[in-house]
Each structure stands twice: as C-alpha cells, then as structure tokens.
Amino acid sequence: MSPLIEQPATKSLLAETALTEQLSTAPSATTDGANATTDHIAPDIKKVTRRSLLQALGLSGAGLVLFSPLHAMAQSPASHNQIAQSSSADQDFDLGVFVSIAKNDEVRIVNHRAEMGQGIMTSVPQIIADELGASWPKVTVVQAQGDPKYGSQATGGSASIRQHFNDHRQMGAIARTMLEQAAASVWQVSVSDVSTKNHQVIHRKTQKALSFGELAELAAQLPVPDKGAVALKDPKDFTLIGRDVKLAGQEAIIKGEAVYAQDIQLPNMLIASIERPPVVGAKVKSFNADATKKVKGVIAVIPLKDRPLPVNVKPVSGVAVLATNTWAAHEGRKQLTVEWDTSNARVNQNAQHHTEQYLKELVEKVNHKGRRVRTEGNTDSHVYNEANTVEATYTIPYHHHMSMETPSATAVVKDNVCTVWTGTQNPQWAKKLIAEELGIDPQAVTVNMTLMGGAFGRKGKNDFTVEAVELAKAVGRPVKVVWTREDDVKHGFYHSISANYCKAEINKDRADHWVQRVAYPPIGAIFDLNAKSPSNSALSLGFADIPFELEHLSCETQDVETHVRVGWFRAVANINNAFALGSFVDELAVKAKVPTHTMWLNLLGKDRIINPAKEGFKEWDNYGHKKQEYALDSRRMKKIIQLLMKQSKADSPTAKNEGWGMSYAHSFNSYVAAATKVRVVDDKLTVLEMHTAIDCGVAVTPDRVKSQMEGAMIMGLSTALMSEITVKDGVVEQSNFHDYPSARINQCPSLFVHILDSDAAPGGVGEPGFPPILPSITNAIFHASGKRIRNLPVNKVLSV
Amino acid sequence: MLKLTLNGQKVALDVDPNMPLLYALRDIQQLTGTKFGCGAGLCGACTVHLDGESIRSCITPISVVEGKAVTTIEGLGVASDELHPVQQAWLENSVPQCGYCQAGQMMSAAALLAKNTNPSDEEINNHMQGNICRCGTYPRIKKAIKQAGVMIQDVNQAKPATGKKGVQA
User: Which of A144, A588, A721, B85 has its CA 20 to 30 A from that of A235?
Assistant: First the structure.
C-alpha cells in the first residue's frame, strides 16, 4: 500500500486540531459567524474563513478553518504552506464524531488517543478506516483535542485497542452506514442492496457506484445512527486491520517537523524553569531572587502555591523563574536560593526516607506472614521437606520513566478561559484539573494534545500541565514550563521499590504448597495518605492472579508507608511480580532438574479457563475485562511458551560461559514469553540475543506490535541491568543519564519478535512485552554462570 | 551580532555568547527539530553538525560556532524537499517510535556515513553510542544506517565523473 497520509504532527498541528474540533461539532456551520462550539474554545482562536486566511497569507483556497493567530504568527512560512495543504480540500462533512469527508474524496479520521511512540495515531484511524471501507491513501489522520465526546482518552493500561476495539469499529461503521443510506436514497433502492468497498458505495445489482466524496454532503444531512444499531464487518473481510499500512507521523518526525510539547512557541510567551522541593511535601520557607533578576532575559520570579499532602497528581510547589528564553530561565534559576520548610510531621518522615534501610524493611516484611488476599487449600499446616523446598526473596529498586522528552506544557489563561498544549496521556484529566485549578467550567478549557517524546506512564500525571496554568494565570502571559533532566529524574512518579517472597515444595516435576508475598509503596498513597498496601486491581497484576494449578496456595501482602511520589510505569506491578515469579519458576526448575519451560508447562497444568475469582481471589480484576473473550486461558499460555521455544531454540546447548534464560507473563490480556542468551566471563556480562513471542489476539498494526516488543526488550535491559533510583534523607540521589543510565546501541543484542497469528480479541501491546524480559535475563545469567541474581540491578554484581 | 551559516543561510544572532547553540536554534531561530534531552552532552538528542562534524548543541556555546557552518535536521536533506539517504532509510525501516531522539540519531548517522559508507557493526556502535533511544529503536537504526550507506555509495558511483559533489552529510 502506498497511502498519502497527511501528517497530523506537523507545524500545522494546532490549526488542524482546531479544524477538526469545529468540523466535528458543527456540521452545519457556515463559513462565517461564530457558533457555540467555537466561542468557548479560547479567546485567541478565532474562526475565519479559509479564504480570508489564505488571502492574508497570499495563498488561495476555499473553505473553513479555525485558526489560532497566536500560534500561526510564530510559525515559519513553510508551516503556512502546510496549513494551506491541509485545508486544500473542499468543505468537509461530518459523519459522526470521528469521520469527516470532503467532496474531493479526502477522508479525515480523528485519532483521539495520545501518541507517545506506540503508533496509536495509525492504529485507531486504521480500524475506523477499515470499517468505513476507506482507501488508506485517501485518509488524513487528525489529532483530537481532549474532549469527553470522544469517550475515554486516558491512554494507559495498554487499553486503546484492547478495551475499545469495537468502539472504534462502530465509529467507522456509523459513517459507512450514513454513506450507504445516502447512496440508497439517491438510487431509490433498499440500503440492504448496497455495499461499500474501496472508498465507494456500490449498488450490487446494477454495479452503479458513488464515491465517498460524491455522497458526503448528502450523508452528512442524515441523522447519526446509534452505535449499537450499525452492523460490523465480518473480520474475514478486513482490508486494513492486521496489515502494515503506511504509518502516520513518520515523515514529519524524520524531517524534524513533528511537534512535541517542548516545541510549542507562542508570541509573548515566557519559559518557566521551576525549583521544586527536594523532599516530597516540603514548602517554600523563603527565597532570594536578587541575583536571578539580574540575569538578562529573566522577567519574573514567582513562588508556586503551597499544595497540601497527599500530593495527588498536582504540582509540588516551588519557585518559578520566567524568562524570554529557555537558557535565561535555567541560568536565572541557578542564581536562586530557596529555603525549604519540612516541619510538617509527615514531610519530616519523608525527609528521613532512605532506600537502603527501606528495602531491608520490605524484605523483612515479606519474610513474615501478611494479610491474605488469596487462599487455596492450606499452606499453614504443611510441613515442608527442606530438601525439596525452594524459598527466595526478590527485590527491585525504584525506577524512573526517563522518557527522552522531559515534561513540558504551555498555557494561556485569559478572562477565565484557558488553552493548553501539553504532552499528556490523559487530556480529559488535565481538563478537569485545570478547571478545578482556575475555578472555571471545564468547557472553558481547551486541551491540545501534542506528540509525546516518550511517556511510559509518567505523562498520565498532569502536574506539569497545571504548573503551566498556574504560572500563566499569575503572569498574564503565555507560559511554557520546561523540565530539565535533573527536574525529571528528581521529581518523578517512580515505579515502586518492592520485595517479593516465594516459597514452594517440589513434587516430582512440578511444585505445590505455594506461598508468595509482596510489599511495596502503593500508588494509592499519592491520593490517600492512609493507603498502605496494593489495591485489588494492583494485586491482579501478575500476583494474586497466579495461573498455576495448585492445591495449596497463599498470596499475602503487607502494609508499608509511602515517602515519595509513586506512579504507573509501563506494566506497573507486573514488573516486580513477573521478575519474582519468572525467577522462582527457574529456581524450581533447577531444583527439579527439568528445563525451565517444562516447569512452566507443568505448573500451568491442564487445558482450562482460569478464573482466580472462583479460586480464592474473588476481587480479581482482569484488567477491567469481564468478557469471556478475555478469559485467562492456559492453552494460550502454553502455546506461546511453545512458540517461543520453537523459534528461539532456547533449549539448545550453548558454548561454555553462555546460557539461555526464559520466562513468561500474562498482562493486559496478552500472553508473552521471552528468552535471552548471555555470556558471562570474568564477571562481565554480554547479552547476545533476545526473543519475544506474543499472543495479543488480533495484531491491528503488526509492525507496531513488533516495535513495541523491540522497545520492551531494550527497556527490560536497562531496567534489569543498570538503572535504579535511590533516596537518601528523602532526596533522590540520581539526576541525569550518567547516574540513571539507559541501554545504549552498543549494549543492544540481536532482537527477534514472534507474533502469534490469531483472530482472538485484541489484547494490550504497549506494556505486556516488558515484564517477562527481566527474569529471562537473570535466568540466563544463572545458566551461564551459576550466579543467581535476586536483587536488581544486575550491575551490582556483574559488569554490564 | 554573532554570525554563522545555518543550513546554508547566513544568519546574525543577537544573543548572549554563552547561550548554548541548542537554545539559539530552538528559541531564537524557531528550529525546533533539534531536541533537548539532558543538557549535559549525555544523550545526543541535540546533535547537529558543525562544519560536517556531529556535536552536542546543548553544551556548545553559540560563541564557539561563530563564523562556522551549522546544519540541523531541517537542513539535512541534500536539496530542498529532498530527503537525505539517512532520512529515506529511516522512513523505509519505520525506525521512529516516539521520534523525539531521531533527529539526533540521524544527524549522528549522517556524520558517520559522510566518512564511511560501509560501517561495520562495531563502527556503528562506537559512533552511535552517544545517542540514547529510550523507545528501543537501536536494531532498526543499525539496519537503516547500513541501508543508507549503500544508497550513498550508489549515488556517489553514479556521479563520479561529473565533478558534482556526492551526497554529503
């Protein structure tokens, strides 16, 4: 396929966004005059006729656009040309919320989810276009703003497709139905006599055809059918789903034209660099900005308001230096002196947080009985045969997302109306937080979604967006908040430090009498100071949903206090749980003298649908899915392990000092197995080869499934081998890539991805590749060297 | 006024001579294709060419580039609207995920290929290890660099006798 996709993430992004917004809400709007929708978007975004805009720019054209003079004035002539190109179609006609069609046949499809590298701005429109019957080269992808009318836009939990596949299909089917109804009325035939194919509606008997463009105006006058009333395609008739189409956004990226949050430029804008409290919850006691104000370019120094604990996802106070350019803001901040107040009892406890001591406490806790969250049979009365019993404790440190683009957002606040441009995974949450912050109606808040330079869960929290809003209001000018790398590392929402304990007794070639415990600071603690243990949904992330056929099982957790901001990180608690379980199964296999994959297959047991809710864990949450099509299926687990072993040949003999390790994890309704081959010589580790096999059901955009698996393997390398966040006196000790390293190209082995061909309901893709990687690496190290690494990162023991 | 050649155009900038080139490009020249990643020369996201050599613009004061030629991702194409072979190879291999580091990656790769159109794995690793990609696009970067190298060889071989310049970074 060779489609021409107009890239949404170009300099014309903002105009595009506004255009779509207007079109999708005001199908009957004329080329002049305001309407209710545009009135509240922002005072600075005016509706103009395309003709007047283009005349003003010395270009020609016709139609309707919404145009932000603030933004466009900051753009180069090249970007004006892009606006002209993006607007070159005739007037567009709405067919539902997600699709508009121009008379020239161009179809615009909204991507309403947040793009952070996972390729969702291709996959969502691809699904809609398939159901619509569109020709991909005639599709233009348009990025949505944050707006409840699109349904959920919370881009996390690998949910965009696994929870909304049929919703997206319905959006395409609605538009297709309207086109078919329009064609039937033109031909005076029954709708059941027409079909849609390749951008046309066809009357089957006569083979008469009308193009989408020819039908658009008429179709747009029809009532939008109810989404439950439209027929979906038979999957065997998919033309785009499951195929590698041309990806949206790639050309803009390779030309350097893609717009990320840090790239927003507005006239009269100030850049803010913020000194934040080193300890969570501390307040500004006093500050001296005399030297700061002497730095050329510094315009204002503004203390951010104090925020009470719990921290929530809001800003953490501090002092902001605002300047006319980024460098002046950072230089001014270097001259700032701030005294912090940590007298609050809770803050004082945070100031005494030491990870070294804290981890010992976690280990101690999981080595004692805890609160039972799942029980089968009876592990209490069993007398373990020591010779056949394996018992181990595994730990991982705090981790940071370290997305290449640090957090950034730009805000304009004027007359109780607010417009932001932000790199967020959760634009509707941003809208709500901003409305609360300003005490205004959410309708008066416009959230423009830029591309994100990586996110990995960090950018679901909009603290940085609210910072920009607070400062823009205070200074009365547009403000862009830019975090330095040091800000990003020291003020993150970390993946929790954790300890997992496992104990089981070998019985021939499998095991039973299984006890496992976990303790870590729960994400709930950032919202509720009394939250001390994982929620039921967190316990469902590869812990109490353990899929093994066991007669005796006890899953337990412990209460702990939380002293830093913790948050969602790619795969969340699956990371530590899969590391522990994957390591422990390997230890059991070694003890039982069977291959690791055999131990997995034996423990998974007979073919069955696994329902932890009926096996002692009634609070089980299957990643929000209750549907049978997402049931936990031991056959799929075993099949993906077998596919991995077949493709990787990880059970074949290795050279001396080399070894294979494998593991498996189910997460976000996908099944993933991983194998790694390493060499260990003189305590120097070399990772030679990595494989991932995934059953994610229908793979909508196969190349992006592959790229996510590749990325998960590299992130697994970084996480297992080299990175950790440590805290001393409540202060994060790391600051940049030198002390929070990330895998580099010379550390990257050969990577192989094996995608199971499946027509099952689509599972998650962004996260599931990650969890099994860590134990596959440490298991390989054991099989190469005899060194069992239970405490990450590996570089505490081996040179990497 | 500080003068330099930027993407083939002569420009004069009225900025503090200590300002890193990165911020002069992004904030003053509105060339936002060059990215901030670390501010310390650790990640390579800000890589540009200075007289053909790759440098980290986040730690290079603008005064250092006075009178010299700076090329950014916006000026990497061999002609206007024409992609550099590195960009073509990046596109053909669907290298970018989030894309944020890729301008720096491509600038580093172009500088490597300008000197060596047939780099070994080890030469690629040595040259590219200053550029971090958190999304994990390294295998595709390696493949794209080799492919771009072949494309550059083909172009250079096609035009050896004309005296025209071949593809340069």
Answer: A144
